[in-house]
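hiii, so i know i said id send this last week but things got crazy w the move. better late than never?? heres the sequnce for the chain we talked about at the cafe, plus the structure i predicted for it. fair warning i was half asleep when i ran it
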Amino acid sequence: MVAMGRVRTWLCLALVLAVVSGGVCLWLKVKRCSAQLLQPVNPIYNGYADLPDKTQGVSLTPFSVTGADGRRVQACIVRADDKKNITPRQQALLERMHGELPERLGSVDYVLVCADWDHGIRSALPLAEQLAAAGVTCVLWEPRGSVSARPYCTHGLLESRDVPAIIDALEDQAGHGGLMIIGVGKQFGAELLLHAAAHDARLRAVAAIDTRASMSNRMKRSGTSMLIRELTGWRMKLLTGLEPFDIAAVQSIFRLPRQVPVLLIFSGESDLNSLPEDSISLYTQLHPEQRSLATLRRPDDPADATTRNVSFTQKGGTREVQQQAEATLLQDADDIPVHILRWMQEKLPSLLDLPPATSSSKQQQ
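okay and structure toks below
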């Protein structure tokens, strides 16, 4: 009888330890998934200051603004340096444009360029360097705030509220409003600029590379169980006040003014966080006259093909809806900045015919 009691005791202890161990493992997995979601750091630039001391091919003019949450945001203006210091990246762009720069680009006052939440200036600098070679003046900034003051990423939703302050500062420097400002973003930066354009009409057009339609879809692609996703969403709500379904670029697409052109580019070079269906689903929600879609050429594309029909099947409940669009084919990733510049050239006449936008940061959400 005593031996049987001891066996039961040990079984109960083993059961308790198994439950506790399982709970700890579950919590550690949730924390790991939450960290990937809420603190997407770029390890390439670890140990580097936000603002580079020296750059090649461009010159940097630093400035700072007070963000929507009261934190300081480091920013800089990027202009082409002396042509004698042209970089290989810039030279490649000029060669692809056959040395003929789009004439109307002089009408663009600034291009806001954003890539990563972490090390925002450094991650956006390569693209800004290429655009600057065509004579475009770019503006980069730190979405995390100066000295990484913001601990959690909201994938452009809250970070987009800094954009009006940046535009205010640019207008103050110019001494007038009505500037021609265009946004170019990649992944996180693409989402941020779509959110920003939906709430500030001074951002006149947006080129979005590898954007994601919604955070909920991104989490579903992670391969984690529904329990892990639910707990990760709960932790996100606890830390940021936002739930995954709150963060959706597709919602901002609906709020975009009809006259705002949007170029969507899917490079296929990112991870599963961005898929062709994201760009297609965003594309189908835009006004036909203002939307453009491009993707990289594949080996199975005919040599003389300039476009490709892209599609995906969207499942919702018991229905399946096929969404499709025609995408312009780009030769490779180096063609992306060239295509963006040509798209700007194409859209500028209609943008210049519109009255100057005068929205202020007070109109933000």
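btw Residues 360-365 have pLDDT under 50 and may be disordered. thought thatd interest u
miss u guys!!
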